[in-house]
């Protein structure tokens, strides 16, 4: 009987404090090693989703061009009361024209396809924590096709066949969030490259293929005519 009592008590033996602390330390070390890898996988997934969004946006832009004699969208349209022209931008043209799926109502901020998930994650404090949430982050290359406040609208009706090298010219990219701003602008340019992207910008060229580049390698200036930076930002037959 006494032997049975001893055997039962031997099964109740648990971890010592040292053993428990050792297990906790091992788990902590493994977590520290795995977290960067998990974060990298998540960031890469965000970039893949951003590339997918940009393909859909480019497809909508191509439909617009096909319906408008190959004209590119206007990155920005300044208001002009004399001509009866309201303020607008490329997103508004796509939404009002019905070129985006489910774009019959709502502004650009309600369309998730118009934004980068990595930028929404990076800048969530000023962009996503709003009511309603603000999703749009993409900007169009304003150097290509803007219409100034007092310029006639025809000055901003660039056709795609005037681009010398569409495959080298940036069209739409992840956008720029100004310091102190609460939403991303509708355009990007040499002085306002993408930000809040964890160092890598995703964009679509004017021929529809996707590019990725470290933000620090984005050309800061348009550069001399026929230079790589000139093609990247402008590349237009005048």
Question: In a nutshell, what does this entry contain?
Answer:
With 238 residues, this protein is of the alpha/beta class. It has helices spanning 2-11, 17-67, 90-96, 117-122, 124-127, 228-233; strands at 76-77, 88-89, 138-141, 146-147, 170-174, 187-188, 200-205, 210-214. Helices cover 35% and strands 12% of the residues.
Which assembly state applies to the chains in this document? single chain
Residue stretches low in confidence (pLDDT < 50, at least 5 long) are none
Backbone structural class: alpha/beta
Number of discrete domains: 1
Please trace the helix and strand order, writing H or E for each element: HHEEHHHEEEEEEH
Strand order of the largest sheet: 6-3-5-7-8
Number of strands: 8
Question: How much β-strand is present in the residues?
Answer: 5-15%
Write down the overall geometry. Answer: elongated
Radius of gyration: 26 Å
Average the pLDDT over all residues and give the rounded result.
Answer: 82
| Proportion of residues in helical segments | 25-40%
Largest sheet: 5 strands, mixed
Distance between the termini: 103 Å
Number of helices: 6
Sequence-ordered SSE layout with sheet pairings:
Blueprint: H1 2-11, H2 17-67, E1 76-77, E2 88-89, H3 90-96, H4 117-122, H5 124-127, E3 138-141, E4 146-147, E5 170-174, E6 187-188, E7 200-205, E8 210-214, H6 228-233
Parallel strand pairs: 1-4, 3-6
Antiparallel strand pairs: 1-2, 3-5, 5-7, 7-8
